[in-house]
Amino acid sequence: MINGEYVGFGIWFNRHDSIKFDLSQNDRKYLVYGSNLCMFTHSDKAKEKLIPGLIRHEARQAYSQCRFVYAYLHHIHHKQRRIYTHCGPMEVERDIEGMTLLRSSPSDGVHVEYLRSSSVTDKWHLDHGDSMAPSSLECFIHDPEHGQVARFTHNV
After folding, report:
1. What is the pLDDT along the chain (156 residues), one digit of tens a residue?
2. Concatenated DSSP letters of 96-151
3. What is the DSSP string of 28-45?
């Protein structure tokens, strides 16, 4: 807030050259950072199995130039991660009752990851049995040359 009025991030950071906003109506947004191509979407429209092909098609130039490809999705509100390689999808992480299952994984391929929600479980999710994941904030650190090098989770 400035002088008692709400100021959106676009206004607050409008004079900073290193911060950019994509305000287009596209359901999927793409960002290139060094050798990383990241796609962001809520993912309530396109099915997960279509995501690698959509990335190759919609961001074909960036896809051909980037060594690491990540898709960050949010629709299911609990942790689930698969890596799509030429052999097909491989589940490497998912929330199960009271814990998160992790498997070792290859670094190549398209990493498709659902993020947990930071909001508390509401009635709709309780009624549909979707209350096993903790409310969490997740952060990923990408190195321009080495891909995702760290991840942090804060349960709220």
Report:
1. 455 555 555 566 667 777 777 778 889 999 999 999 999 999 888 899 999 999 999 999 999 999 999 999 987 777 899 999 988 999 998 887 777 888 877 778 999 999 988 777 777 767 776 666 668 888 999 999 999 999 998 887
2. ETTEEEE----SSSEEEEEPPPSSPP-HHHHHTT---SPPEEEEEEEETTTEEEEE
3. SEEEEETTEEEEEE--SS
The residue length of the chain stands at 156
- Rounded to whole angstroms, what are the CA distances from 138 to 51, 80, 132? 21, 13, 17
The pTM of this model reads: 0.81
What single letter denotes the amino acid at residue 139?
A: C
* Six-digit token string for 18: 């290193």
Q: What is the CB neighbour count within 10 angstroms for residue 43?
A: 21
Query: CA torsion, points 19, 148, 64, 33, in degrees to nearest 10?
Result: 20
Which pair of structure tokens corresponds to residue 73? 């999705």
Q: How far apart are CA 70 and CA 50, in angstroms?
A: 14
**In the numeric block, which tokens belong to residue 35?**
């050798």
